[in-house]
Specification:
The complex is a heterodimer of chains A (332) and B (327). Chain A is mainly α. Chain A is globular, with a radius of gyration of 24 Å. Helix content of chain A is 69%, strand content 0%. Chain B has 327 residues and is an all-alpha fold. Helices cover 75% and strands 0% of the residues of chain B. In chain B, helix 7 crosses helix 8. The termini of chain B are close together. The chains are: A mainly alpha (332), B mainly alpha (327). At the A-B interface, helix 5, helix 6, helix 10, helix 12 and helix 13 of A face helix 1, helix 6, helix 7, helix 8 and helix 9 of B.
Amino acid sequence: MTFTSIPEASDGALPTEPKRPTMASRVSASFAMFRNGKSIAGLIIVGFFVILAVFADWIAPYDPLEKDFQALRQGPSAQHWLGTTHMGEDVFSQIVYGTRGVLIVGLVAGVLATLVAVIIGVTAGYVSGWKSESLSALTNVFLVIPGLPLIIIVASQYEDPSIVLISAVIAITGWAWGARVLRAQTMSLRHRDFVQAAKANGERLHRIIAVEMLPNLTAIIASSFVGTVTAAVLGLTTLAFIGVIPITNLNWGTILFWAQQNGAFPDYWWWYIPAGVCIALLGMALSLINFGIDEYVNPRLRSAGERARAMRKKGLSASSGVTAVRTAPTDE
Amino acid sequence: MRFLLRRLAFYLFTAWAAITINFFLPRMLKGDPVTAYLQKNQGKVSPEAIDSLRTLFGLDSDASLWQQYVDYWGQLLRGDLGVSFSNGLAPVSEVIASAIPWTVGLVGLATIISFLLGTTLGSIVGWRRGSRADYVVPFATFFSTVPYFWMALVVIALFSTTLGWLPASHAYDKGSVPAWSWDFIGEVIAHGTLPALTIIVSSLGGWILGMRNMMVTVLDEDYVTVAQAKGLRQRRVLTQYASRNAVLPQLQSFALSLGFIVGGTLVMEMVFSYPGLGKLLLDATNAKDYPLMQGLFLVITLAVLVANILADVAYAVLDPRTRQMES
């Protein structure tokens, strides 16, 4: 019934030395969750796409809709790195400009959904009784209701849904997972000594939540933010692919929509492979960041591989912990 | 018992919420496509059908909201979801009923195969942590984020158009009539292989990762060490001690991600022109067939709920603690 895989709180983030933490050390401590191989690899890939989006005007060799009727459906070449479409548009430029649409919707939807998740999740975890139960029931309802059909139905009622509307709808259907995890973690924090001490000191509720609890929830908030951004990117490209979003909003899904509408499959691979690979790469980068955060929050995940490798070096089998210790002396 | 009652209350509540959302959705959205449609097709739609559409879409502006809500429920309980504009004014419930078996058969089967396969692989990868099996992790990550529809397109391009092994669209050959014959079943399997493959390939990675991470956590528990100290065989420790506990959260995330999976497979159906709920929903969207869209959303949500109940029953079977909560 309860959420069992909640790892222990990340008390390790707080510096243990007695001297007062400086501003710099605090900032660096709050980024500790990103300081591992997986997160850094993910951040580098995301950073690459951000650079593409910000400097699209300089990076893209052509305008995304610039038509070159001398070069229709051409394969990759020196002029057109990823070939051209049926109208002679440069696929590489479309991908570069399309990154903007994807990242903007991902960011807006992620921020909105995380805000809702934090407000509802932390409140549900902190209050008790029927208030907590009803917020939890609300969260579960939104978890169960399939998001994509709802988004399709709402978006299709508008002739020209704006980016903000699309992001908002994606956020409304995407906040529940984060709220659920946050509620579980807040409930476990509520009974910790430091929160009880703050309460006994007569600190006000908003201070307890903002100063005592939120720092211990940052890893989970970050992870739920990254998760919603992933879901938003997938949702947006799917909506664009099925043609619910107007084609004026250029993103990777729109490229695939055009490709399918104009018979790109299967011969004109340069038209549809790159956009899909970009979606998967961005999704993978975001998942990597999340794995990094998971390993930071749950040290067992981090050390499992290392310990097993270390044991193997000593000639022990990792998957037989105790027996291995018994056989070790006979080797010597 | 108490556990089951709690769950039952939750499902009833969710079903009520979904139906209520379905009631308010057309009332909140601007425009009135249904009246426009009715005016365009005056005389073609029977008075009873107009009546039921008025209730479904809140066109009875003279009735109070509460009265509309009660009428709406009465109509749902009679199984009346209105008529579909894009299917020759056939009742929505019939149109949906003809599509359900295809989706349940394909998506249900493929999802269960993917879950079982992914969970098994994940527990092996977790068991052999730190060995070469860890190289599975990055691949699983990549494939778990590939969109279903794109995977479907690639699979068609590869296996159907280029290699010509399997048909790329529809649920059976053009011209054949559904029947319980071996020929027809063979056709259905041939047509269903690629869609099923798409679902399995796109969702397998997520199951492997989830199970692997749970295994790694569970393998550090004392009871696993004790089991090994007792000298139990490795296979027994893996299946009866570690996997059995690691699979519980996995089952929960299975139940919770069903809504997400259904969303992804709906679009995949469109790519394969598979005659299931997803294709129906997208056709309805393109044809602005609002009664059908409404009915589909309701049916899809209820289907996800039913699948959740099944996952809950499986959970209760696997975890004795849920059954002993009465005390």
